[in-house]
Amino acid sequence: MASDGNQIIQRRTIMVIDDEPDPRTILADLLELNGYAVMQAGNGSEALAQLKLGSPAPSLILLDMAMPVLDGKGFMRRARSRSWLARVPIVLMAEVDQPPPAGTVEVLKKPIAGNTLLKCVSRLVT
C-alpha cells in the first residue's frame, strides 16, 4: 500500500502461474516495474495453496495451460468452484493461438511481448 496525502492506495495484484521459472520471473519483473504487486506459482497446486480462503484474491490471474502437478484446466475448475475466486479474470498464456476457453477472458500467445501484456493487464485491472 502507498500513501498519497490522506488517501491510502492499495496496489493491484497479479498472480502469474507458470512452471517455467525464467518466463514467469520476466513477466513478474515487468509487471512490478509498472506498479503491480505480483504473486508467483509454479503450478496450479502451488497457486491454490497461496489462494486460501480468507486471503485477498488477486485482481487478475495469468495462467499457463500446460504444467505438471495441476495444469491450467484443473486450476480453473478448482478456482471457479470457490465463490471468492470465481470473479477473478483469468488470462490464459498458451504456445498456440486458440480461442479463450470457458472460464478465461483472453488468450495471450507465448512468448508474450511486454507491450501486449501491459495493454491486456491495464484493460482488465482497474
3D architecture notes:
By secondary structure, the chain is α/β, with parallel strands linked by helices. It has a single domain, classed as Rossmann fold (3-Layer(aba) Sandwich). The chain is 35% helix and 24% strand. The protein has five helices and seven strands; from the N terminus they run βββαβαβααββα. The chain has a five-stranded parallel sheet with strand order 4-3-5-6-7, with helices on both faces. β1 and β2 form a beta hairpin. α2 runs parallel beside α3. The longest helix has 13 residues. The N terminus is likely disordered.
Secondary structure blueprint with pairings:
Elements: E1 2-4, E2 7-9, E3 13-17, H1 21-33, E4 37-41, H2 44-50, E5 60-64, H3 72-80, H4 83-86, E6 90-94, E7 106-109, H5 114-124
Parallel strand pairs: 3-4, 3-5, 5-6, 6-7
Antiparallel strand pairs: 1-2
Helix pairs in contact: 2-3
